[in-house]
Design goal:
42% of the residues lie in helices and 16% in strands. It is built from 24 helices and 18 strands.
Length: 575
C-alpha cells in the first residue's frame, strides 16, 4: 500500500473517533503535514469544516464555536511553529473550561531532530494547559495499529470532554514534504478503519453520597468554621465563566434573599432579572460604602470591575467560592481563607438552609438604589457628552442583535456597566486568561456556531492585534464590529498612567489605522461616526446579513473625569 492511501485511512480512523466522541465541527489550518486530515474532513458529511489560514486566529475561532455551541471543537494544524500559535487560545480554553481538541499533524519520527524544517516537540508545548495528551504511533497497515490508535484517542477524549478541558493529539503522518504526496497505489483497506466498538465518552460514575443528615452536619461544621450563618448582609457574586448554572444561582437567591451581583460576562443577567446590574457604579454610593456585605458566595472568575471586586473583598465574615465540585474560602477580610470542602449539586439546598434568611432589608435597599440609578441612566448619558462609556451605552440600546461580545480591556468594562438584567441577548467575553488577543476570531466563532447576528465592541488596539481573523469566510457571519477608536489604550489612560504624562508619552502609541481601507480589503461594510446621533443612524443602517465596521472616533483625553461625572449623575450625588 502507498503512503497516501495509508495516510488517508489513518485520518479516517481519527475522524471516526472524533465523531464517536460527539464532535461535529473541525477548524482546519492549511499546511503540508495537515493536508491529508484536512482533505478527509472536508469530504466527510459528519463534520462541518472551516478552513482558516492563521493558526492563532483559527484556534480562537474554534474557542468561540465551542463556547457558543456547548460542544467540543477540533483544531487541526501542521507542524512546527503552527502549534505554538495555537497556545494563546488553548490557554484561554484551559482556564475558562472550554473543550477543544488540538490535533497537531507532525512529521514522521525519522524527520525529527534531523535538521528538517518545522520540527519541534509538540506535546510539551501544551502540557500545562491540557487535561490529557497522546502521541499516536506512525501509520501502519495492520489492524492492531488501527485498534491501538483508537484506544489511545478514546482515553484522551474521554478525559478531556468529561472535564470540559482541552486535549492534545499529536499525529505523525508519512511523507517527506507532505502528507498527500501522490503514489502509485490507492488501496481500499476499509476493514482497517472499521471501528471495533462505539468509542464515545462514557458517563462518569456517580459519586456515592452520604445521607442528607450526615452531609448537613459536615457542611454545618464547615460553615461554622468559616463564619457563615443566618442573618448576614449577603451577596451572591457571579463572575465570567462560572461553573454553576443560572438555576443553581436562582435557588440560592430564593432561599437566602441575598443581593445578586452578576458580571455581564457570565451571560446570566438575562436569566436573573433581580441582579444589581449597575453595581460598578453603586459601590461608590455613600450608603453602599458604609454598609459593606458581610458574606459573599462567589462563582466564576474574578469580577470585571476592580471596584466591585474590592467591595466584595471587604466582606466581614468572608467569601466562599462555589463550583461544581468544591467549596473553598477566598482571600478577604473574613475568616474563610483557609477552608475548603467538597461540594456537589445536592448541597445547594443544605447550604441555603444554613444561611437563610439573610438581611432582606439590606438587599431591598440595594435593589432600590440600583433601580434609581437605572432611571437616571438616559439623562445622565445625554448630559455626559461623547466618550467611551456613553458610546457603548448608545450601542447597547440598538435592537436586532442575538449576541454581544466585549473585548478586553476597556470595552468589557464599559459593556459590563451597561448590560441590563433580563436583557434578551447573549453576552460573550474572553476573561479566563486573555488580554486583547484573539477577540475578532472568537467573536466570529460564536456567531458561526448558530448562525446568529452579533455586535462586537472592541478597542482600536485589540482590533489591530487580530486582523488576520478578517480573512474571508465561505459563509460569512453577520453583525457589527463597533470599533472604539480613542487613539490608543484607553484603559491604561484610566488606571495605569493617568496623571503621569511622562509615562504616557513613552508607552502610549496611537494605532493610526486606515480602517476604511481595511474594511475594503476584507470586503466589509464601513461607517465612520463622531457623535451619538451618527452612531444610532449607522447601527440602524447596518445590513442585517453582512458584517459592518462602525468606526467611532472618540477623544483620547479626559476619560477619568468623564467617568467620574457620569457616576455622580447616575447616583444622584453632588460632585
Amino acid at each position: 500500500m502507498g503512503q497516501l492511501a495509508l495516510n488517508r485511512l489513518w485520518c479516517r480512523n481519527i475522524l471516526d473517533r472524533l465523531s464517536d466522541a460527539g464532535i461535529s465541527e473541525i477548524v482546519i489550518c492549511s499546511g503540508g503535514r495537515s493536508a491529508a486530515l484536512g482533505a478527509e474532513a472536508f469530504g466527510d458529511a459528519r463534520f462541518r469544516a472551516f478552513l482558516r489560514i492563521d493558526e492563532r486566529a483559527a484556534t480562537f475561532f474554534a474557542l468561540g464555536l465551542a463556547r457558543a455551541s456547548g460542544r467540543a471543537v477540533a483544531v487541526v494544524t501542521t507542524s512546527g511553529s503552527a502549534v505554538v500559535n495555537t497556545l494563546p487560545a488553548i490557554s484561554e480554553a484551559w482556564v475558562s473550561g472550554v473543550p477543544l481538541v488540538l490535533i497537531s499533524c507532525d512529521r514522521p519520527n525519522s524527520a525529527r531532530a534531523s535538521g528538517a524544517p518545522q520540527t519541534l516537540p509538540h506535546l510539551p508545548l501544551s502540557a500545562s494547559m491540557t487535561a490529557a495528551q497522546v502521541e499516536l504511533a506512525e501509520p501502519a497497515p495492520t489492524i492492531s495499529a488501527f485498534e491501538a490508535a483508537r484506544a489511545a484517542m478514546k482515553e484522551v477524549l474521554v478525559r478531556g470532554l468529561q472535564r470540559n478541558q482541552p486535549v492534545h493529539l499529536n499525529v505523525p503522518l508519512n511523507g517527506e514534504t507532505s502528507s498527500i504526496q501522490p503514489d502509485d497505489t490507492l488501496a481500499d483497506l476499509s476493514l482497517l478503519a472499521q471501528s471495533s466498538a462505539a468509542a464515545g465518552p462514557a458517563a462518569p460514575p456517580s459519586p456515592s453520597r452520604a445521607s442528607r443528615a450526615s452531609r448537613r452536619g459536615e457542611i454545618a461544621a464547615w460553615a461554622e468554621r468559616a463564619g457563615a450563618k443566618a442573618g448576614l448582609r449577603g451577596v451572591i457574586a457571579v463572575g465570567p465563566h462560572p461553573d454553576l448554572s443560572a438555576a443553581d444561582i436562582a435557588r440560592l437567591k430564593e432561599a437566602t434573599g441575598y443581593a445578586l451581583v452578576i458580571d455581564a460576562g457570565s451571560d446570566m443577567r438575562r436569566a436573573l432579572p433581580e441582579a444589581l446590574d449597575l453595581a460598578d457604579i453603586l459601590v461608590f454610593h455613600p450608603i453602599v460604602i458604609g454598609f459593606a456585605p458581610q458574606i459573599v458566595l462567589h462563582a466564576g472568575k474574578e469580577m470585571t470591575s476592580p471596584y466591585v471586586e474590592t467591595w466584595l473583598r471587604s466582606a466581614g465574615e468572608g467569601r466562599l467560592a462555589l463550583d461544581g465540585a468544591r467549596m473553598r474560602g477566598l482571600p478577604g477580610q473574613g475568616s474563610c481563607g483557609a477552608t475548603e470542602a467538597a461540594f456537589g449539586a445536592d448541597d445547594f439546598g443544605i447550604l441555603a438552609e444554613l444561611l437563610a434568611p439573610g438581611d432582606a432589608a439590606w438587599s431591598s435597599q440595594m435593589l432600590a438604589l440600583n433601580a434609581a440609578a437605572q432611571a437616571r441612566a438616559p439623562e445622565a448619558n445625554a448630559a455626559a457628552g461623547w466618550n467611551e462609556a456613553t458610546a457603548v451605552f448608545e450601542a447597547l440600546q440598538t435592537q436586532g442583535f442575538d449576541r454581544y461580545f466585549f473585548a478586553s480591556s476597556l470595552a468589557v468594562r464599559m459593556g459590563n456597566l451597561w448590560v441590563r438584567a433580563a436583557s434578551a441577548a447573549h453576552i460573550d467575553v474572553n476573561r479566563g486568561l486573555n488580554g486583547i488577543d484573539g477577540t475578532l476570531s472568537t467573536f466570529f466563532g460564536t456567531l458561526s456556531a448558530k448562525g446568529e447576528r452579533g455586535m462586537l465592541i472592541i478597542g482600536d488596539q485589540a482590533f489591530l492585534h487580530d486582523l488576520p481573523a478578517l480573512e474571508r469566510f465561505e459563509d460569512p457571519p453577520s453583525g457589527v464590529i463597533f470599533l472604539i477608536d480613542n487613539a490608543g489604550p484607553g484603559l491604561l489612560d484610566l488606571v495605569v498612567w493617568n496623571g503621569q504624562p511622562p509615562v504616557r508619552g513613552v508607552l502610549h502609541r496611537e494605532t493610526e489605522m486606515d480602517v476604511a481601507a481595511i474594511a475594503r480589503a476584507f470586503g466589509l461594510g464601513y461607517a465612520r461616526v463622531g457623535d451619538a446621533g451618527a452612531l444610532r443612524q449607522a447601527l440602524a443602517d447596518a445590513p442585517p446579513d453582512e458584517m459592518t465596521i462602525v468606526h467611532a472616533l472618540l477623544p483620547d483625553t479626559g476619560l477619568e473625569e468623564a467617568i467620574g461625572d457620569l457616576a455622580r449623575r447616575l447616583l444622584g450625588v453632588a460632585g
